[in-house]
């Protein structure tokens, strides 16, 4: 029960990142590049302070740090830029749909031969994602935003898999944030968006970086070693549902029928692929 509660808390934090980012970037309170950099900076500061407060050190040169930093930076940049044109629920659905597909593929390449039900579940989940992204009626999905969020999904999948070997979740997350900061800033500088941030945008970026990203990712790194890649991918598919509901209630976004049906297909496909009861 404790594990379930901690996983649920982490998924809420992940969904909150979509809401906070969309709220800041979509309202013009912050440009996506500055939001991403401040988010990483706030997370790095809070995590380092927590590590030092308990007498630990930040392992900047530990094995796998390059993968953690690069994947986190890719996720941060793609995530923030995508929310210029995507709603919170749709963005989360694309993000974690890609995460599921990537982690499913990783498990297969590592020698875990998929069963027929796992293959069918992956096909259904992918069909649900494609259904949402396919332009129809009054709902048009920006191709550039979807591509950026897909890149963010690949980054997050790599970041999650890298966390399976982290001996100290808090210290590893702090090191990832510190090393990802110059990478994220350099990427934003090369993209060259206008620097713009209001006090409200700064507050949202700091909240996202320090709490729902920094502390949320540290908790996720602690939980990931207890989960198989398939289960880790599955539970993250609850995030789009949380973000969709929160986006409709808090941001006034439209919960279209196609988005709801696509979400149900994705979640149903993942359940079929992973849960023994669903297979039967």
TrEMBL record:
Keyword DNA-binding: no
Membrane topology: Multi-pass membrane protein
Top-rank lineage group of the source organism: Bacteria
Pfam families referenced in this protein's UniProt entry, alphabetically: EamA (PF00892)
Keywords attached to this entry: Membrane, Transmembrane, Transmembrane helix
Alphabetized InterPro entries for the sequence: AA-Vitamin_Transporters (IPR050638), EamA_dom (IPR000620), EmrE-like (IPR037185)
Transmembrane spans: 36-54, 66-84, 90-107, 119-137, 143-162, 169-191, 197-220, 227-251, 257-278
EamA domain ranges (all copies): 145-274
Subcellular location: Membrane
Name of the protein in question: DMT family transporter
The organism's taxonomic lineage, starting at the top: Bacteria, Pseudomonadati, Pseudomonadota, Alphaproteobacteria, Rhodobacterales
């Amino acid at each position: 029960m404790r594990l379930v509660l901690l996983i649920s808390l982490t998924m809420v934090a992940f969904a909150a990142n979509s809401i906070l980012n969309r709220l800041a970037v979509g309202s013009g309170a912050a440009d996506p590049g500055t939001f991403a950099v401040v988010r990483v900076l706030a997370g790095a500061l809070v995590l380092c302070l927590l590590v030092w407060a308990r007498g630990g050190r930040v392992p900047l040169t530990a094995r796998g740090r390059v993968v953690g930093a690069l994947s986190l930076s890719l996720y941060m940049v793609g995530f923030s830029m995508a929310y210029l044109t995507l709603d919170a629920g749709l963005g989360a659905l694309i993000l974690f749909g890609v995460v599921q597909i990537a982690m499913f593929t990783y498990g297969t390449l590592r020698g875990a031969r998929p069963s027929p039900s796992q293959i069918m579940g992956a096909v259904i989940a992918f069909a649900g994602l494609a259904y949402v992204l396919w332009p129809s009626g009054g709902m048009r999905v920006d191709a550039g935003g979807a591509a950026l969020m897909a890149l963010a999904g690949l980054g997050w999948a790599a970041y999650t898999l890298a966390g399976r070997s982290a001996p100290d979740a808090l210290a590893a997350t702090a090191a990832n944030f510190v090393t990802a900061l110059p990478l994220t800033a350099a990427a934003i500088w090369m993209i060259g968006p206008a620097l713009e941030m209001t006090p409200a945008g700064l507050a949202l970026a700091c909240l996202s970086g320090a709490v729902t990203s920094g502390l949320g990712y540290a908790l996720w790194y602690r939980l990931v070693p207890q989960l198989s890649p398939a289960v880790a991918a599955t539970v993250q598919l609850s995030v789009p549902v949380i973000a969709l509901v929160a986006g409709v209630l808090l941001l006034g976004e439209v919960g279209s029928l196609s988005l709801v049906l696509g979400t149900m297909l994705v979640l149903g496909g993942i359940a079929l692929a992973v849960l023994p009861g669903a297979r039967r």
